[in-house]
């Protein structure tokens, strides 16, 4: 992120897009853009970028881009899709840049990459409406082939379904040995069933318009050893179903996880409690027909419409509290998501969040993130370096480490904050340290009052060398770090300077 000039915030951008100003220079016309034409628009004052087949004039957006003009210029006059996906594929650019839409790329016949789903872009001229349609037939052979590879060979049928008088059960044979419920996300609303299964770095989807209505609750069962996933629905009426339903657009597809669009469902705000003077714990209730476990170390995206524009930001679910014996609380049964969110006085998204009333709804995405629990499972010493709300991924991580990783000898949280008042869940952390001898917490303040007798300072090699130490020579360590980007980058560098290897460090980033 770079500092933006005054008057160049996201809100200012939204205002400009609503002003009626011609931001493309084409007076509302949409054109077909050839590669040669695109390449000509490669200067700051005349910059076009293609994302997923659509071309945008981003010159008016330059000064508003949170990552800075230079980042945007990397894709000037070219197809910036990969760059965009690497940095922030979750940003809702269609909504943010809709007034900058120049048109679409002229279609070139494309060879389908092996095993990938082809998206044919159908552009409705003049309507500014983009529709993604995937043809069912041309690449099914590839999909099947790829499915076999990813699901291990043996089964040609990947999913099946059966019924009793009252139940419909859909069975997916992934053949993935360590299949877990947290790799299965199910939503069922208005007869639309969507079941996504994460298989390595792929996503398999069952998506059907059900033949008959079902009740609200869904159940997910896993046979871990054989990788069988069962999604069970309760029939509304005890009648025989002739078929499961009509397949929807992405039904029975297996594609790279990154290529599957984010799916959102509306969740109800059920409580909002103060954690500190500026941070609140939001409890969001999932629809009854949603199964959405968020794995340790992963985040979700929240989406709100702010001044007519869809705005998306990432947040990391926490537990409702730090239970002293770390047993799962009864209220943490998967029905609710808990988010610890700092409200910035000039923050666009967090101000809107803070204005939500109990009972209001907000859209929540599927989880994402590249943290792997296996990194902790083999560690003897776990160090967690958190700054401010960078504490959020550490909550589930501590829970997991202290309850499920028997080889861990120490779990140490080094928590950086400005002042004492900013420390999140201080009391609970201190109590946990008293109860569990493997757990230790160290608070470090950058702007303490003179009464502070604890440690003071900012992240540095000398400070880290004091707190991050192997419990035994050669003990296996994992160091996780999360906070403002410069904090994280500096922390990683300091750790490397201290001799820790890349494999021993996990940085939480966007
Ligand atoms: P903006 O309108 O973007 O910014 C307004 C002002 O707020 C800025 O000028 C700055 O002063 C301040 N500000 C905004 N963003 C930041 C920032 N990131 N760091 C420091 N100052 C900032 N936040 C949480 O509170 N809880 C979480 O669990 C959480 N999880 C995250 C997970 C990931 C993977 C990432 C990348 C970020 C996470 N964040 C979390 C940050 C969150 O996504 C938003 O950036 C934050 O809520 C600010 O949004 P905003 O629109 O209110 O602020
Ligand atoms: P904050 O209160 O502003 O800062 C917390 C501590 O970090 C303070 O001691 C602060 O010291 C220090 N710090 C801030 N910037 C620093 C820098 N450039 N170099 C060294 N130390 C620095 O933090 P916050 O407002 O809660 O922000 C938390 C951040 O974590 C946000 O940026 C958020 O996006 C990020 N986050 C990321 C994830 C993820 O998974 N990627 C999850 C949650 C949160 P000073 O006194 O010097 O400011």
From TrEMBL:
Q: Origin, by domain of life?
A: Eukaryota
Q: What class of enzyme is it?
A: oxidoreductase
| Cytochrome b5 heme-binding domain: residues covered | 30-106
EC number(s) for this protein?
1.6.2.2
GO CC, sorted alphabetically, is: endoplasmic reticulum
Q: Which Pfam families match?
A: CS, Cyt-b5, FAD_binding_6, NAD_binding_1
Keywords for the protein's UniProt record, in alphabetical order? Endoplasmic reticulum, FAD, Flavoprotein, Heme, Iron, Metal-binding, NAD, Oxidoreductase
The GO annotation for biological process reads: superoxide metabolic process
Cite the FAD-binding FR-type domain residue spans from the record: 262-374
Compartmental location: Endoplasmic reticulum
Cofactor(s) essential for the protein? FAD
Which Gene Ontology molecular-function terms are recorded? cytochrome-b5 reductase activity, acting on NADH; heme binding; metal ion binding
**Keyword Lipid biosynthesis assigned:** no
Q: What reaction does this enzyme carry out catalytically?
A: 2 Fe(III)-[cytochrome b5] + NADH = 2 Fe(II)-[cytochrome b5] + NAD(+) + H(+)
Q: What is its main location?
A: endoplasmic reticulum
Q: Which residues form the CS domain?
A: 154-245
Query: Which PANTHER family is this protein grouped with?
Result: CYTOCHROME B5 REDUCTASE 4, CYTOCHROME B5 REDUCTASE 4 FAMILY MEMBER
Family designation: Belongs to the flavoprotein pyridine nucleotide cytochrome reductase family.
Tell me what this protein is called.
Answer: Cytochrome b5 reductase 4
Gene name linked to the record: Cyb5r4
């Amino acid at each position: 992120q770079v500092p933006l000039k005054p008057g160049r915030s996201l809100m200012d951008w939204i205002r400009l897009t609503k002003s009626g100003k011609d931001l493309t220079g084409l007076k509302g016309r949409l054109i077909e853009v050839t590669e040669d034409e695109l390449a000509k628009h490669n200067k700051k004052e005349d910059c076009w970028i293609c994302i997923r087949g659509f071309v945008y004039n981003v010159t008016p957006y330059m000064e508003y881009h949170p990552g800075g003009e230079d980042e945007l210029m990397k894709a000037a006059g070219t197809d910036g899709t990969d760059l965009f996906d690497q940095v922030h594929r979750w940003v809702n650019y269609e909504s943010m840049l809709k007034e900058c839409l120049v048109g679409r790329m002229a279609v070139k016949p494309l060879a389908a990459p092996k095993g990938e789903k082809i998206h044919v872009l159908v552009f409705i001229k003049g309507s500014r409406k983009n529709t993604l349609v995937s043809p069912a037939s041309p690449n099914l052979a590839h999909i099947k082939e790829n499915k076999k590879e990813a699901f291990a060979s043996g089964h040609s049928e990947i999913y099946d379904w059966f019924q009793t008088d009252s139940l419909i059960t859909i069975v997916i044979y992934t053949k993935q040995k360590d299949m877990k419920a947290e790799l299965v996300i199910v939503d069922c609303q208005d007869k639309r069933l969507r079941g996504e299964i994460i298989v390595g770095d792929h996503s398999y989807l069952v998506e059907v318009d059900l033949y008959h209505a079902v009740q609200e609750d869904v159940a997910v069962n896993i046979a871990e050893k054989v990788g069988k996933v069962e999604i069970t629905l309760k029939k509304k009426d005890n009648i025989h179903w002739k078929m499961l339903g009509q397949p929807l657009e992405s039904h029975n597809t297996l594609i790279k996880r990154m290529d599957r669009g984010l799916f959102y469902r509306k969740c109800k705000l059920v409580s909002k409690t103060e954690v500190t003077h500026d941070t609140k714990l939001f409890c969001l209730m999932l629809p009854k027909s949603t199964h959405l476990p968020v794995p340790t170390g992963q985040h979700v995206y929240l989406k709100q419409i702010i001044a007519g524009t869809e705005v998306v930001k990432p947040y990391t679910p926490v537990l409702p509290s730090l239970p002293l014996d770390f047993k799962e609380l009864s209220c943490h049964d998967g029905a609710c998501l808990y988010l610890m969110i700092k409200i910035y006085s000039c923050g666009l998204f967090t101000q809107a969040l803070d204005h939500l009333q109990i009972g209001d709804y907000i859209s929540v995405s599927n989880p994402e993130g590249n943290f792997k629990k296996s990194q902790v499972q083999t560690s003897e010493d776990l160090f967690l370096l958190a700054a401010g709300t960078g504490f959020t991924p550490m909550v589930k991580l501590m829970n997991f480490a202290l309850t499920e990783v028997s080889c861990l000898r120490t779990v140490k949280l080094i928590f950086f904050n400005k002042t004492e008042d900013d420390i999140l869940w201080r009391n609970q952390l201190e109590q946990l340290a008293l109860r569990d001898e493997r757990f230790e917490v160290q608070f470090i303040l950058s702007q303490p009052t003179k009464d502070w007798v604890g440690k003071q300072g900012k992240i540095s090699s000398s400070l880290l060398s004091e707190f991050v130490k192997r419990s035994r020579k050669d003990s296996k360590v994992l160091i996780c770090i999360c906070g403002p980007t410069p904090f994280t980058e500096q922390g990683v560098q300091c750790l490397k300077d201290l001799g820790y290897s890349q494999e021993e460090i996990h940085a939480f980033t966007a």
